């Protein structure tokens, strides 16, 4: 099957990065041919009035779709062609020039045209961002009536009733939990351990197989210890609320290295007020009794043991070199040691899987009965092997991903799990979402804080991005660490100085 080719011609203000994901949601395998033209108000007014070229340059039957957008200060003109035939011709003057309102109006025009052409609705409508619940949360916090929120999501964003319902449910729970946390007076810390037993074919996180990069793990901990020392001195006036050790796979470290990491955390960070301390033990082939005992000894309140699937053939195909039985063993070992807050992750849409496979995975998870369950929808990341070596997986795409999601929703209700956070990623299968479910009192608070961007997250380690929250105007500033393992080790002093410079230059920063 040939991939559709999309011609996107942009004149004037550039909204390419905001409109491209909407087009791709209808045509997920599309390749884009993009052109940009400089335009001033005078020339655009002439084009708008005369309906002259270059609008007609798009009428090219060689392209599956051609979009031509003239986007000026408070007006736009949009034409969409399908294989040379004019599909939509929209114009508007006196448009609200505020960026979000302007973008949404143009997006609605594109959505209507593609809905008619492709006979396909998107469950999230024109919402393509990572945090579709964020504005729902803000509306709830501001006391906006539910019927008004529903109307806004339906009429302005074209969201389905199902997605509106889950947005409201998630946002109410988030609001309830954050109100109890008093997050305004605190901050959180993320610590990235970028080592794994192997790299999964869908993964694009900084992840280095221990077999090839394990010789750098001690040097990495040396560098990380410097960053931890700095982090412990940053916010003396604030309380550290949550600590999240993720990756990669933190338990890919040896037992002695894991003990060192946990000791460094307690040596340098003010842990006395921490209400949640999470350590990912995601790969069962990296879990030992001693490691679980160490994590427990150092006060972790929550761990993750992540199968992704309970189908052995899928585990083999996606590069997870462990067995289904190892998943069961790791989980039961943690329970026997007294862990009472264990999360499990699964991914729907994995290569070669069907809704029946997901149903079997859920049945296995029901027997283990974790305290929370995070359901991810497969997202094809540009840097992941699933994309860079896509020829290896050709013809093995999952089928019925929406049906898979529906099964997980029913399962969660039957097993008394409640949705408490939600987010999306680019290029997700069937334009769906990731949902975190938990039994009451077992929610991951860090997950809510980072998704709703309500609290400064100081992030440490290779590829980690710190997010500093300014309360006035809701501004967020990011300070990134380098992704390369070698560069992080060699340039750790520079990474620390980046944060120090930012903090010293940020006056009246609410952290």
How many strand elements? Answer: 18
**Biggest sheet character:** 9 strands, mixed
Please name the CATH topology of the largest domain.
pyruvate-formate lyase- activating enzyme
Which architecture of the largest domain would the CATH scheme give at its second level?
A: Alpha-Beta Horseshoe
Number of domains: 3
How does the overall form come out from the CA principal axes? globular
Structural class assignment: alpha/beta
In spatial order, strands of the major sheet run 14-15-13-12-11-10-9-6-16
Radius of gyration computed on alpha carbons? 24 Å
The H-level CATH homologous superfamily of the largest domain, spelled out, is tm_1862 like domain
Note poorly predicted spans.
Answer: none
Residues in helix, % = 25-40%
Proportion in β-strands: 15-25%
Mean pLDDT score:
90
What top-tier CATH class of the largest domain fits best?
Answer: Alpha Beta
Number of helices: 18
Would you give an account of this structure?
With 511 residues, this protein is of the alpha/beta class. It folds into three domains: 5-118, Double Stranded RNA Binding Domain (2-Layer Sandwich); 134-177, no CATH class; 182-501, pyruvate-formate lyase- activating enzyme (Alpha-Beta Horseshoe), CATH 3.80.30.20. It is 40% helix and 21% strand. It contains 18 helices and 18 strands. A nine-stranded mixed sheet has the order 14-15-13-12-11-10-9-6-16, sandwiched between helices. It has a five-stranded mixed sheet with strand order 2-1-3-4-5, with helices on one face. The protein has a two-stranded parallel ribbon with strand order 7-8. Helix 4 (134-141) crosses helix 6 (161-181) and helix 8 (217-231) runs parallel beside helix 9 (255-268). The model has no long low-confidence stretch (mean pLDDT 90).
């Amino acid at each position: 099957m040939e991939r559709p080719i999309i011609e996107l011609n942009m004149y004037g203000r550039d909204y390419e990065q905001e409109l491209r994901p909407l087009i791709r949601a209808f045509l997920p395998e599309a390749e884009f041919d993009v052109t940009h033209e400089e335009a001033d108000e005078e020339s655009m007014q002439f084009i708008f009035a005369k309906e002259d070229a270059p609008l007609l340059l798009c009428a090219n039957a060689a392209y599956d779709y051609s979009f031509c957008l003239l986007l000026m200060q408070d007006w736009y003109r949009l034409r969409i062609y399908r294989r040379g035939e004019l599909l939509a011709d929209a114009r508007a003057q006196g448009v609200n020039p505020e960026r979000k309102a302007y973008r949404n109006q143009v997006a609605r025009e594109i959505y209507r045209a593609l809905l008619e052409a492709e006979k396909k609705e998107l469950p999230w409508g024109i919402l393509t961002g990572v945090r579709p619940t964020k504005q729902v949360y803000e509306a709830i916090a501001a006391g906006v009536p539910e019927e008004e929120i529903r109307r806004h999501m339906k009429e302005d964003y074209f969201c389905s009733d199902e997605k509106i319902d889950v947005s409201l449910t998630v946002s109410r729970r988030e609001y309830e939990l954050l109100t109890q946390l008093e997050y305004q007076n605190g901050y959180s810390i993320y610590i990235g351990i970028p080592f794994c037993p192997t790299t999964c074919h869908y993964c694009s996180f900084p992840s280095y197989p221990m077999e090839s990069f394990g010789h750098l793990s001690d040097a990495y901990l040396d560098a990380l210890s410097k960053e931890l020392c700095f982090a412990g001195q940053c916010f003396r006036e604030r309380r550290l609320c949550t600590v999240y050790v993720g990756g990669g796979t933190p338990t890919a470290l040896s037992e002695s290295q894991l003990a060192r990491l946990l000791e460094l955390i307690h040596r340098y960070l003010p842990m006395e007020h921490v209400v949640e301390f999470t350590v990912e033990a995601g790969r069962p082939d990296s879990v030992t009794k001693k490691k679980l005992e160490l994590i427990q000894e150092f006060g972790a309140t929550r761990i993750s043991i992540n199968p992704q699937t309970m189908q052995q053939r899928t585990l083999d195909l996606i590069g997870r070199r462990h067995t289904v039985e190892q998943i069961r063993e790791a989980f039961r070992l943690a329970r026997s040691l007294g862990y009472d807050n264990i999360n499990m992750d699964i991914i729907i849409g994995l290569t070669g899987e069907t809704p029946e496979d997901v149903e079997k995975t859920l049945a296995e998870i029901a027997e283990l009965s974790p305290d929370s369950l995070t359901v991810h929808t497969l997202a094809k990341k540009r840097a992941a092997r699933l994309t860079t070596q896509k020829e290896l997986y050709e013809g093995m795409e999952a089928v019925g991903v929406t049906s898979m999601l529906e099964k997980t929703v029913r399962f969660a209700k039957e097993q008394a799990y409640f949705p408490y956070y939600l987010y999306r990623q680019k290029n997700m299968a069937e334009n769906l979402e990731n949902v975190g479910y938990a039994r009451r009192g077992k929610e991951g608070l860090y997950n809510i804080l980072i998704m709703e961007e309500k609290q400064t997250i100081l992030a440490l380690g290779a590829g980690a991005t710190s997010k500093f929250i300014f309360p006035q105007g809701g501004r967020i500033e990011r300070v990134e660490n380098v992704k390369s393992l070698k560069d992080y080790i060699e340039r750790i002093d520079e990474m620390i100085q980046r944060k120090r410079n930012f903090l010293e230059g940020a006056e009246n920063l609410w952290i």
